[in-house]
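Hi Y.,

Following your request, here is the sequence exactly as I used it, all 255 residues.
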Amino acid sequence: MNLAELQQRVSRFVYTRQPTDEQTAAVMELVDDTRRAAPEDGFRVYRRNLLVGVALELRSTFSRTRQVLGTQRFDDCVRAFLYASDSTARVAQPRGRGLGEVGGDFPAFVRAECAEVAADMADLEWAQEEAFFAPGDEAISESTIRTLLELPAEDIHLCLRTSFALLTPRYPVHREHFEDPEPDLRLAIWRDDGRYRCDEVEPQLWPVTRAIDAGQPLGAIAALPEVEADPELLRECLSVLLIRGWLREPLRSGT
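Below is the corresponding structure, written out as tokens. Let me know if you'd prefer a different format.
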């Protein structure tokens, strides 16, 4: 009996609703008899199945990136990515969502090895994936904001929603047509009420949003050159962030 036949018999046993005692005994005999298949054959099958599983996960996560590159080029890129040393380590020790976690390194690999527009698309799709799996949270209320603003600015750490990601693509890959690069694009990707969102961030809003994302306290944000040049900018930005629901319950110093 070769390895393929052994796999088929074991598979039929696993997917039988109520295997008989005779079926169970037969499968146990097959598994116990190590002479049925050489160990190197088993490792070869395991290795192939693992890589195929990760490749299929990447195909699912980066479906639009695959469309941009074309199926053959995308699959070639995935194959090269999986054999890169860093990616191999991530596959061997998956965290969080398991095999899907390795996808976090894929956009950078695409940027280094393939087209930049495809890399921008991969960044967008991974941010969407992260937003989908991020823990849920609630937007901060206006009353909470007002209470916080009564505290010393150095003690206030505003927080973007847990699912939030900020991107700076060259290509407007979030739109239907993205053939030509577009300068100064700033995107916010997040999840709201179970729905994926992708919003363009206005230039005047970007410095404050980026500083909040970096974990800077409100006092440091107030000292940004853009804010010092326009004292009303911080208040206006906070109002927009509040209205859009981008902020969540904040952390405070010492907690």
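Confidence is low (pLDDT under 50) at residues 92-97.

Thanks again,
Q.
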